[in-house]
Automatic annotation (TrEMBL):
Active-site residues, record numbering mapped to chain: E192
Protein name: Galactosylgalactosylxylosylprotein 3-beta-glucuronosyltransferase
Enzyme class: transferase
Whole-protein coverage range: 60 to 297 of 297
Keyword Transcription regulation set for record: no
Species per Swiss-Prot/TrEMBL record: Brachionus plicatilis (Marine rotifer)
Key word Iron present: no
One GO location term (cellular component): Golgi membrane
Length: 238
């Protein structure tokens, strides 16, 4: 039977939030058999996102988890969306769906429908290229004989797996196998790599998707910050 795809999306309040979520919703409306876990970066669920979820005609789980403010700055850089993804993982671990794949979809990326077809066939961990990321046109697994042998990337050589959040999906069973199958907000390693390390993922486990990693099915687009004009506003009478 076709596995269900659990899509975890962190989101936070900003002028472009509804635009990003609406665009993502329109994509997901075209994907069968999914559960969309939306986790707001806030203490409580907002009315705005609650209505959005209600009107959506999608199978949505709406949660909230606020990003922790630090008393003292950490020597490691803080990653975004961590508490929210972890809240989503925790929800899944409680519900224990069995035949399922998990994908972490940030709210402002651009997703091809082909990506979800690829995700559907993941056995343990699927990997594929991501465009417009890491200071490159794309980062990608390098494959030989349908196996991943290396990674094409430039940014941060110390990464355990030099890959973006959008570049992999995992079988839900991996979350159940390891108690600490959560993201680390502060790590001297990278966010994605340290997570995959916790799941004991090895390079040999990678299942290359997107036509042996030769195609782009996801873009790490970033929505521009919009500054709303304050002060005098000219109203033109017509
Ligand atoms: N995010 C969040 N709280 C924040 C910043 C980001 O929940 O304070 C979410 C955001 O909505 C997105 C994900 O975390 O789904 C990654 O953030 P962003 O897209 O800003 O990261 P970037 O594109 O810079 O990697
Ligand atoms: Mn983003």
């Amino acid at each position: 039977e076709m596995p269900t795809i659990y899509i975890i999306t962190p989101t936070y309040l900003r002028e472009t939030q509804m635009a990003d979520l609406t665009r993502l919703r329109n994509t997901l409306l075209l994907v069968p058999k999914i559960v969309w876990i939306i986790v707001e970066d806030s203490l409580e669920k907002s009315d705005k996102i609650s209505s959005f979820a209600m009107e959506s005609n999608l199978n949505i789980v709406h949660l909230a988890e606020k990003t922790l403010k630090l008393e003292k700055p950490s020597k490691y850089s803080a990653h975004k969306g961590v508490e929210q993804r972890n809240r989503g993982i925790y929800w899944i671990k409680e519900k224990q769906p069995q035949n399922a794949i998990v994908y972490f979809a940030d709210d402002d990326n651009s997703y091809s429908l082909k990506l979800f077809e690829d995700i559907r066939s993941v056995k343990k961990i699927g990997v594929w290229p991501v465009a417009l990321v890491g200071g490159l046109k794309y980062e990608a697994p390098i494959c030989n004989n349908d196996k991943v042998v290396d990674w094409f990337y430039a940014y941060n050589q110390r990464r355990y797996v030099p890959t973006d959040m959008a570049s992999f999906a995992i079988n839900v069973q991996l979350l159940y196998q390891f108690d600490d199958s959560y993201f680390e907000r502060f790590t001297k390693s990278d966010l994605e790599g340290s997570f995959l390390k916790r799941l004991n993922i090895k390079v040999a486990d990678f299942e290359p998707k997107a036509e042996v990693c030769s195609k782009i099915h996801v873009w790490h687009t970033r929505t521009m910050l919009v500054k709303i004009r304050k002060g005098e506003i000219v109203e033109r009478k017509i």
